[in-house]
Design a protein that fits this description.
Belongs to the small heat shock protein (HSP20) family. The protein is mainly beta and 162 residues long. 7% of the residues lie in helices and 28% in strands.
Length: 162
């Protein structure tokens, strides 16, 4: 006898002893959003949000440059856009398309995100925005923004007379 009725989980719980058979329960799954940008069906809205939220980007600063690394598995370099906007803003965007569904296909689990993603980073004053370089290798986008050398002020020793 189960302590929690299966209807509590929307009837989607297969085996109570299998931790992977429990999907996340969404109380708003079929809730109709109305008006504005939320007028899209919930599933499309959720997948677009997940794609944006799941685009993980690391930013490290070395003595020579700011280096951004983004994991974008399955994307080609033609599907990713890297731009520097006015105001020293680095923008990385793209779109991961859904797999085409065949009429006879039966999906058991859909976990990979699809949809558009967009991330923006305000670059510091020492960034050379006119020399930004980007490379894509094995699903990892690397954007390198060189830094201007900080010139140390010259110190002139003054002889003290007397």
């Amino acid at each position: 006898m189960a302590l929690i009725p299966s209807s509590f989980f929307g009837g989607r719980r297969g085996n109570i002893f299998d931790p992977f058979s429990l999907d996340i329960w969404d109380p708003f799954q079929d809730f109709p959003f109305t008006g504005g940008a939320l007028s899209a069906p919930r599933s499309e809205f959720a997948s677009d949000t997940a794609a944006v939220a799941n685009t993980r980007i690391d930013w490290k600063e070395t003595p020579q440059a700011h280096v951004f690394k983004a994991d974008l598995p399955g994307l080609k370099k033609e599907e990713v856009k890297v731009e520097v906007e006015e105001g020293r803003v680095l923008q990385i965007s793209g779109e991961r398309n859904k797999e085409k569904e065949e009429k006879n296909d039966r999906w058991h689990r859909v976990e990979r995100s699809s949809g558009r993603f967009l991330r923006r980073f305000r670059l510091p004053e020492n960034a050379k925005v006119d020399q930004v370089k980007a490379a894509m290798e094995n699903g990892v986008l690397t954007v390198t923004v060189p830094k201007e050398e900080v010139k140390k002020p010259e110190v002139k020793a003054i002889d003290i007379s007397g």
